[in-house]
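== Folding task for one protein ==

=== Format: two labelled lines per protein ===

==== Paired sequence and structure tokens ====
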Amino acid sequence: MRPEHARVLLTGATGGIGQAMARALVKAGASVLLAGRSPAALAAQCQALQAPDRVHWHAADMADTTDIASLARTAADWGCNVVVHGAGLPAFGPLESIDPAEMQRLLQVNLLAPMVLTQALLAYLRSQPQAQVICVGSVLGALGLPGYSVYGASKAGLRGFAQALRRELAGGPVKVQYLGPRSTRTGFNSAAAQAHAQATHTATDSPEVVAEALLQLLRSEAAERFLGTAEQVAVRLNGLASTLLDGAFASHRKHLSAQPSLSAHAPRA
């Protein structure tokens, strides 16, 4: 779809990647409905984008199904024809360091919310001449890394949802896509995750690079796109024979195990 024809519902709009996506979409000519938890942040972002005729906002907590239903009604009334699932929560550390309540909220926001919001909008989107649902996941949704078992599981689930729904809706007006960024320089990651990335020489992108990839995916209507040449190769290898890559992440595993502060939630004997 050409950006100037797109009316985009963007969740997670106030995050680092979300802000870059909003700027890129508006600059390309799209209309955008910003969604996030903070009314004040959304109002300020809307004003900063300086396109009052094309930018609107709606506050919603993606962990709240009532808020999701309200957002879906607003998006349909507004004339949305593109949904970008950009909202997400991070989780980094050994599995035993992550609180179960944190796991539940992460899965609600990263996986269940996009599914519920898509379901709520699907009948409306099917009535449009052309529509797109873009799930913003992660390369970790196709390539499991030590320290990201919970976060990676949420993004792997999102990729599976996008893939299955794409096939379910094939031949109709709604295209379903998956965008897999690699590590991105925003405030999304914790200090521990950033230190881990530096120690393991993990390649990172700016949020603007991810935003440009979103625009390319919108225009091309391709099924999925992963960022980073090395990551693209690794994703393909992992899909063919995942055990071949197990040894490639030894440094990640060793660095992770050397961080005693991350074991705060370890079960006691």
Summary: The chain has one domain: 3-263. DSSP finds nine helices and seven strands in the chain.
